[in-house]
Amino acid sequence: FKALILVGGFGTRLRPLTLTKPKPLVEFANRPIVEHQIEALVKAGVTDIVLAVNYRPEVMAKAMHDYESRYNVKIHFSVETEPLGTAGPIALARDVLLADATPFFVLNSDVICEFPFSDLAAFHTAHGGEGTIMVTKVDDPTKYGVVVTKGGSSVIDRFVEKPQIFVGDRINAGIYIFNPSVIDRIQPRPTSIEREIFPAMASESQLHCMDLEGIWMDVGQPKDYLLGTSLYLQALADRDYALAQAAVTSSAASSATSPTPVPSPSPVASSPYRHSRTASQAKPPRLVKIAGPPLCRLPFVKGNVLIDPSASIGEGCKIGPDVIIGPGVVIGDGVRIVSSVIMEAATIKDHAFVKRSIVGWHSTVGQWARLDGTAVLGDDVHVVEEVYVNGAIILPHKEVKACVLSPQIIM
Ligand code: GDD
Ligand code: MG
Questions:
Q1: Which atom of ligand 1 is nearest to the CA of 108?
Q2: What is the pTM (predicted TM-score) of this model?
Q3: Is the ipTM of this complex over 0.90?
Q4: How far does residue 250's CA lie from ligand 2's centre (Å)?
Q5: Which candidate, 141, 138, 274, places its Cα nearest to that of 211?
Q6: What contacts 119, CB < 8 A, 6 or more positions away?
Q7: FRET pair for 279, CA 20 to 30 Å: which of 97, 229, 287, 376?
Q8: How crowded is residue 89: how many other Cβ atoms within 10 Å of its Cβ?
Q9: Is the distance from CB of 116 to CB of 13 less than 8 angstroms?
Q10: The pLDDT of residue 269 is above 60
């Protein structure tokens, strides 16, 4: 298989983070968003990935070079001289996408889910139509593309991008698979796949949809990024829990048949930071994960938390639920963090309080300072001691010396 990832656009809604890095390289759960996607594509048998970029490809080149060897995949850059929208890039990359007759995947660069690409390919091949898009249900469909199917089937009757009036709640998840013939519908000029190509395919009954299982989030805005983080952590916890259950069951089964007990094969089940749980316990599974050497002491953690092993954490902190702590982060004593993401090399000083916020790379939150209300600090921002920041977006390299009481952009 082949795949194209739509990487263009300026990531305006994820500023100030995207002033420092292109959106696909912004970390989600401590790994660039695009790395989650590349890893899943490769797992499904993708050998060639086109990155459709419309500005500064050089900033992504090094990371992609690393991924080529790490994931054993060829990554092609397709650079637009003017933004070609969400369809134009497919025509521009036709040489790679048409290298053989197999269908190809297309995905938006800001979506997070469990990426069931193999299931999508199997479903697509089985119905025989020209394209399949993954759909998911949301409460507020107005900021997405909405699909309406033909009575109970998978065939899409209408596709409406960002509807003003309610047409349905099943929305385009930003993950597609197409037969090569779709390329003949597209010219290499600015074109919206959602507004031009999908309605045309739907009118010919050539567009199908497949419901996505599990979590999904467009993490292209800070609020959704934080919400997506908590969903993702719970999905990890559920998966670990299921693995641990399977290990318990299989070792029980094997000890019943063999005279010598077999040690648990799963590193998850035996890891010292998992709380062991039996099927009769009804509490939802919980994730406390340090992606590296086991942590010896965890009294400060509440709910699902992911902490890079290179981070250091002081005494008397309370962290969680729904917190991600990146590499090299330094957390002082008595710090409280909840529903937040602390990115690489940031420092949170003693007795600071960080809630529902994103602390960018190399930033500092001073002693007794408070962040809340989806505050986002860009790269290298310094919030001085005792200051309160509520819902503000702080651009890179700023020093915040006075309280910011209401949501605004500080530049
Ligand atoms: N190469 C390239 N060139 N990529 C582009 C361009 C362009 O000119 N314009 C946008 N993109 C990329 C973005 O980087 C993103 O990965 C994807 O196309 C979709 O653009 P967004 O700006 O994130 O669109 P959206 O979130 O408002 O809506 C889209 O995603 C929803 C799901 O998250 C639509 O596809 C909706 O139908 C969908 O529901
Ligand atoms: Mg988006």
A1: 16
A2: 0.86
A3: yes
A4: 42
A5: 138
A6: 210
A7: 229
A8: 28
A9: no
A10: no
